[in-house]
Amino acid sequence: MLRLALTAVLCLCAFAVTDCKRAGADAPNAPVQPNASAHRSAPLGGFASRGGDACEKYLTPAVVSAILDGATEPAKKLSAQGCEVRTVDGGGSISITLNAASPQAFDAYQKYLSNPTPLAGVGDRAVQSMTGISSIKGNNEGCDIDAGGAPGSLKLHGAELGAKLGDICNRIYADAK
């Protein structure tokens, strides 16, 4: 749920940056111009709208069992953009959120992550944080995957977890072509 809230903030940031530039507010120290369109949600289509079904396709039993410790519930569609797989006891989960963020919005989003560190080989750019990974490919394809929960709910940690989650995003990007 936190990832979905942060994705909404990311989308709003993308629109706010675009609308400010249209209003001529891209000069340093320029006042922010209010604009009602900065508060609308991003239109769904193409890449981002496939996120709700991504768990069923990319979080196979083999992938999930390599990441989560314990039996899992079936994949759950959270929205057109996101989905989740949880352990039966609710102690751990993996969520995938696809978005249509620009590279500028991806950069702005970094301040909301806990200690983002570059993650090589995923999309065009990616970072790993305490909660998972966030990546971008091209000008409007973003893939965020969170994995976590109670202590002991994850089998993989650190670079191993980042590589596994990055592989999932790369498969999603490859299938988008």
If you had to describe this structure to a student in words, what would you say it looks like?
- The protein is α+β, with helices and mostly antiparallel strands.
- The chain has a single domain (44-175), classed as Protein Transport Mog1p, Chain A.
- Helix content is 33%, strand content 21%.
- It contains five helices and seven strands.
- The chain has helices at residues 2-22, 54-58, 61-67, 103-109, 158-175; strands at residues 76-77, 82-86, 92-99, 117-118, 125-129, 132-137, 141-149.
- Strands 1-2-3-7-6-5-4 form a seven-stranded antiparallel beta sheet, sandwiched between helices.
- α1 (2-22) crosses α4.
- The longest helix is centred in the first third of the chain and has 21 residues, at 2-22.
- The protein is globular, with a radius of gyration of 17 Å.
- The relative contact order is 0.17.
- Mean pLDDT is 80; it is low at 1-43.
What's a concise summary of this model?
The two termini are 28 Å apart.
Query: How many domains in all?
Result: 1
Shape: globular
Count the E strands: 7
Note the beta-strand portion.
15-25%
* Approximate helicity band: 25-40%
Structure annotation, total helices: 5
Major beta sheet, specifics? 7 strands, antiparallel
CATH topology: Protein Transport Mog1p, Chain A
CATH class: Alpha Beta
Strand order of the largest sheet: 1-2-3-7-6-5-4
| Elements, N to C (H/E) | HHHEEEHEEEEH
* Helix vs. strand class: alpha+beta
In the CATH hierarchy, what is the architecture at level 2? 3-Layer(aba) Sandwich
The chain-level mean pLDDT equals 80
